[in-house]
Amino acid sequence: MLASTKTLITRATGTAVVLGAAGLVLFGCGTDDTTAPSDTSGSPAATSAPASSTDKSGVAVVPGPNPSKVGSPTSIPADRQVPDVPGTKCGATRGPDGALELVILKGKIRCDTAKKVADEYGPMIASGRKQTVQGWTCGPSASENILAACAKGEDTFVFQLPN
Question: Can you tell me the distance from the alpha carbon of 40 to that of 152, in angstroms, rounded to the nearest whole number?
Fold first, then answer.
């Protein structure tokens, strides 16, 4: 059976629309605008790679950020670093919101003793009140870069904010 004239026209129109759309997509994707972006002065910005290129399959490849212009993801800007507390560093201990640095400020306390007290008191720092832990008086600190401190006699250790 032969298709009716109406069916043939509908098929031809559909095919033309599909081909037209495919042509527009190919035309739009086929342009290669490698013009460098301008800075605020109107001069082209210096780039080490073109704005885009294509791989072997013809897929557009856009370069990522320039590593020489992007800082290390773990670096802390100088204006955001906190000063180091002088004393004997005993390593990290847990605090209410993450790791804190344990530092012996004065006395003859050993790091292993400070760590035992810190393990018990660290989560209680968030209470904001003085606590007695294993004979040590521990509480919040108003000193810069020190979240809390524990003292017993002449011995003192602190919970320093890490950099």
Answer: 61
Cβ-based burial of 150 (10 A; exposed 0-12, middle 13-18, buried ≥19) = buried
pLDDT, residue 98, reads: 77
Give CA–CA dist 28/31, Å, rounded. Answer: 6
Distance CA 137, CA 140 (A): 10
Strand 146-152 with 88-95, pairing: unpaired
Per residue in 48-86, pLDDT tens? 445 556 666 666 666 665 655 555 555 656 665 556 677
Q: What does 58-121 look like in DSSP terms, one character per residue? A: --EE-----TTTS--TT---GGGPPPPPPSEEEEEEEETTEEEEEEEEESS--HHHHHHHHHHH
